[in-house]
Each structure stands twice: as C-alpha cells, then as structure tokens.
Amino acid sequence: MDLKNLLVTAMPKTTCNAVAHYVLDQPELYISLLDLVEYGSAVQSIKASWVIAHIRLLSPKFSEQQQHRILNLLRKTAMGGVRRELLRSLEGIELDELIMEELLEIAINWITDMDQDVAVRYLCNRVILACSKRIPELKQELQLIRQLQLEKNGKFP
Q1: How many CA atoms lie within 13 A of 23 on its CB side?
Q2: In the predicted model, is pLDDT for residue 48 greater than 90?
Q3: How many helices (H) and strands (E) does the chain have?
C-alpha cells in the first residue's frame, strides 16, 4: 500500500480505518503519515491527519510517543481540517506537562478566534475541559470565554 498515492484519492471512512489498521501493522509508516501532514500536498495533509486521528482511537501509544511532533505540526498548519484532526489525535492521551501547557495556550487562542473553524473551536473547548481536570481554574476561564462569545456573537463556539 503506497500511502502517498492513496492519500490523494477519495477516502471514505472505511478506507481511512483500513489505512489506520495497516499503519498499526507497520508502525514505521506512522512517521510517513506525519511527514505527509508536514510536507505533502494539501489533500495528502488533510487525509494523513484524518488517519492519524483514527489511529489514536485504535492505539493511543502512537500519539503519545509523537506528541511533540504533533504539537509542532499543529502550530505550523493553517488548514482548519488538519488542525481539527491533529487536535483529535492529542485528545485523551497522557500529555507531557510542557506539551499540555503549549496545547492549552493554542486552544485558548483558537477558541477565542472567531475566524477559526467552528469544529476547531469546539475541539479547543474539549481540550480546555480536559486540561481543567489537572488545572481546575480553567473551568472559570472557559466559562468567561463562553459568556463573552455568547454576548459578542450570540453563539459558542
């Protein structure tokens, strides 16, 4: 299976799951997916990030091992779909303290950015809620963000 070529064709969820299982059987391909997110075409980047998010559901250890690189990719990309999937790939895993702090900073910036995709802002809300289990004060901050956005825009996220 040639990932580079596969990730430019139509990919229904069943294909995405099949690719995720294939990568689980050949773990060295996980790095290839990360490379495609970073260096591939826009289509390859989006589809590779979708597969990475699916892999996290099947085996979180890959995201845990590559959380530094995923965070760097998250910082670099401007594509909403890639941001959404990379955020999903970091959800529910054990994050290093510094990674959690940086992810939290990104999430707070993006949740308050009304130009950001709604799905990205929604995931940022979930990231902040998850982090609030370790940092309880975040619940109050999130409540203030919600209140300000509701007053300013009439909606949240």
Answers
A1: 30
A2: yes
A3: 10, 0
Q: SS3 for 50-100, per residue? A: HHHHHHHHHCCHHHHHCHHHHHHHHHHCCCHHHHHHHHHHHCCCCCCHHHH
Q: Quote the CA–CA distance of 67 and 28 in Å, as a whole number.
A: 16
- Asked whether 56 and 84 are in contact (CB, 8 A), the reply is no
Report residue 52 as tokens.
């990475």
Q: Quick one: average pLDDT of 21-33?
A: 95
Whole-model pTM? 0.91
In whole angstroms, give the CA distance from residue 19 to residue 11: 10
Q: Is the pLDDT of residue 21 over 80?
A: yes
- Provide the residue ranges of all domains of the chain, joining segments of one domain with +: 1-94, 96-157
Per the CB < 8 A criterion, the answer to whether 19 and 49 are in contact is no
Contact at 8 Å (CB) between 60 and 90? no
One-letter amino acid at 148 equals L
Q: Is 99 exposed, middle or buried (0-12, 13-18, 19+ CB in 10 A)?
A: middle
